[in-house]
Amino acid sequence: MKTWGSDQRTRDRVARLLYELGPSTAARLGERLGLTPAAIRRHLDGMLLEGTITGGPERSYGPRGRGRPARVFALTDLGHEGMPTTYDDLASAALRFVAERAGVAAVTEFAQARGHELEERYRPGVQAARPQARPYALAEAMSADGYAATVHEAGVGVQVCQHHCPVQHVAAQFPQICDAETEAIGRLLGTHVQRLATIAHGDGVCTTHIPLTRPTSERTKR
Fold first, then answer.
1. Distance of alpha carbon 67 from its chain centroid, rounded?
2. Could you tell me the end-to-end alpha-carbon distance of the chain, in angstroms, rounded to an integer?
3. Of 156, 142, 159, residue with least CA distance to 194
4. Alpha-carbon torsion, ordered 131, 133, 138, 143, to 10 deg
5. Cα separation of 170 and 92, whole Å?
């Protein structure tokens, strides 16, 4: 017989997983937690009623196949209250202090310095890959930093999707963080990239479009 306590412990595990992975489908959550589809949906329905999570169709930024889009679930602000956000609060307070004392330009300078630090840390792995594989090498490096990044083909390019953002609450207040990160990705891959969506602005994932140039031998084929 299920008890309230066991249900709450399971919901705490679901919340922790959403915090670590970012927006996720019921199937993904159930697989990670070893729960049947019926069991995970029961817990998700309860969390929706509690207001700790929200659910909606997964956003698509390219051609989508037939059928209804998968439903993804994410923590609400109420759900995030139970997560370890002390460092987020401290970082936000520190940047607000910098902005008040030294001006917004100082915050931008900090964001750019962070972008360059990420760039230098990821560069060895990205540069070691062949050009067409570098977005995948970048996603692997970002995943090691907690971004849960994946790569998807999108017409004449690919999209790097970050399913989790370790600094989303700070970036929501200071968009310079996202801007500097996007510029770092462009420098790493040697091309102009376009940020299509960000978790900090309420999207399900951070999506960056990266154009890929086909090899000359392929472009000249008729």
1. 25
2. 68
3. 159
4. 180
5. 5
Q: Domain limits of the chain?
A: 4-80, 86-219
Is pTM beyond 0.70 here?
A: no
Helix, coil or strand: residue 192: coil
135 in Cβ contact with 158 (< 8 Å): yes
Q: Distance between CA atoms of 107 and 56, rounded to whole angstroms?
A: 34
CA–CA separation, 1 and 8 (whole Å): 14
Give the DSSP H or E segment for 121: helix 104-128
46-54 long-range contacts, CB within 8 A, separation 24+? 46/7, 46/11, 47/11, 47/14, 47/15, 47/73, 47/79, 50/78, 51/76, 51/78, 51/79, 52/11, 52/15, 52/76, 52/78, 52/79, 52/82, 53/14, 53/15, 53/18, 53/79
Cβ atoms of 75 and 83 within 8 Å: the answer is yes
Take residue 151 and report the two structure tokens written for it: 């790569």
Say which CATH topology domain 4-80 has: Arc Repressor Mutant, subunit A (1.10.10)
What is the C-alpha to C-alpha distance for residues 30 and 36, in angstroms, rounded to an integer? Answer: 6
pLDDT (tens digit, 9 = 90+) per residue, 2-55?
444 567 788 888 988 888 788 889 999 999 999 998 999 999 999 999 898 999
The amino acid that residue 206 corresponds to is: C
Phi then psi dihedrals of residue 53, to 5 deg = -135, 165
CATH of domain 86-219: 3.30.1380
